[in-house]
Design goal:
mainly alpha, two-stranded antiparallel ribbon
Amino acid sequence: MMSLKNIFFVSITMLLLVSCGDDFLNVNSREQVAVEDRDETYSPEDFVTGVYGNFTDYDYAFAWLGITEMISDNANKGSVSTDTGVDKRKLDNFTFTSASISVKAMWERWYKTIGRASYAIDYTKSFEMTDQALKNRLIGESRFLRALSYFYLVRYFGDIPLQHVDIAARAPKEDVYAFIIADLDSALTALPLKSEYAPDDLGRVTKGAAQTLMAKVYLERENWEEALNYANMVINSGEYSLEPNYEDIWKESHENGVESIFEIQARGKAPAHGVQQYSTTQGVRGPGGWGWGFNVPSEGLIAAYEAEGDSVRKNTTIIFPGETLFDGHEISPNIVNRGYNQKAYSSASLGAGDGDKNIRVLRYAEVLLIKAEAANELGRTDEALTALNKVRKRVNLYPVNFSDQAALRKAIWKERRLELAFEHDRWFDLLRTGQAAEAIQSSTNDKARANFDEHFTLFPIPVDQLRKTPEMEQNPGY
């Protein structure tokens, strides 16, 4: 069985074999010819590993930051005023258009990932294997990765093409969600528990990951019963628990640890790589620094931590001027910005382009918060409070005891912000909870956000895509 540590070498080969090229929505014939023209026979595992490899591209180190964090009320562009970050200033200030490089990059990245996953599924189905359980598992892994990519796309763009149906027609988002749920439903029946994987395969998609993503999808759809049902499956599995110390979650020693449900496996060195420059783009800028200084905490985020008395998560999430980090690294008091994302900090490699930082995508604390939110919406207050207060207890915060549903709802939303800051979820939370306009236009964001209006709650279909498929309709306002 191939270890995910070798993902980086294989993904380079797989990129050549199953790249979608410029026409990333139309993948079938081009991919099949590329494979058939080669003499070497690749295993299904090679192709599935190549799907994982698509999550380590540079797009996840910069474009992804722009459209998930810098656009939200948690962060600002950062760096220096003269550095636009290509389009990051425009994302920060809501002046971006359908020509946005970051939006285009992630649209293409997710569709390329979907194309790879679909081919890996078809290839594995047709490949003769004596180990049926392994065959089913590899298909399940690909289905999860395809569902995750569609989940990003549908939340950003609304109606989108289902690649296997029509590359130009935007399917209603209800159909996209139905496809995501079907993929996850199929995946979780084939995937093993985390504890059932061999050590070398730790980090591959598990049954718990599929259940967690399903809970998250149902939360997005406000199907509270199913969100609670799937969250409880994860909780009752006994496979996961909270790390006792919040700070440990992002250390190398705790990658794929007890709280980890799904991480982008990004530990590598040249010629392999982690997520290319993920730590570099967000690293400290200035004297003694190692990075570009992008994606810095907003005054609003800092104020939210301080208002809650949440020093544990504030000091774990943010690198401040003049502090000494957990590994003894001293930060100059004269750095360029007010602070930086400590969750992206790589103790071993600092600003090396070939990084060694796994990116945490799904973890157990979020499952507890999904349970809390869904239980509260169902009027099951005691269950909601129990789940919420487990998360708060870990960081030494007092338990809350709201009996009013609306007050508890706001407390859970606040907890998600404090717990999950810089984990690429805040923008989606603002959208699904209807808080986007109020949060973005708040005076605590210390940046020009007067440009925000409701049309920004959907991203534009990239202009390059519309040139290739002119019959595809653009979102309103672009």
